[in-house]
User: What shape does this take?
Amino acid sequence: MFGEPIRQKMIAAGNLSDQAWDLMNEGKYDLALEYADRAIELNSKNANFWSVKANILSYLARHDEALECNDKALSLSKKDGYIWANRAFIYKNMGNYAQALACHANSCKYLPYDSGLWNLRGIMNYDMGNNQDALMCYDRALTIDPNNGVIWKNKANVYEELGKFDEAIQCYKRALKIDPNDAEAKSLLNACLNQQK
Assistant: This one.
């Protein structure tokens, strides 16, 4: 068991890292980076702290530094699917989709039941024009979380791209069944119905 001063230091580091994440999500990247650095100063053996810093650096387009921090995170926790997903995010921001997909393969290997990761992998495949792979990823995500309207809409986008409007319409309807107030799904469904005419 840790002594009280060490325990307090670990709690403080965790709080700083959480605040860094929140600041990053608010778009306050420079301040987020300061908090991430302070968390790492208190506990440099925490892989998640390094991963948070890597994400922040990627948002700042400091990709080489981001990869170095992600390397450090992976050296501390090689089988952490979220750290691999963060690495994919960095490569995506660099425009290196092939490397991003390779990293996403690792993230899904270590977290095979995370629908969000399968959804992100589907988005990357779609962005690269790999529509069949995108559909496979969305199908996998939906077997895990069939009540996720966002994934149904993403799947519909692929079907529209392929000119398979009946399938797209069914996906949009499924999204609306989950959330009848989803204005985006309503709009996309109407646009798809108009294209089908």
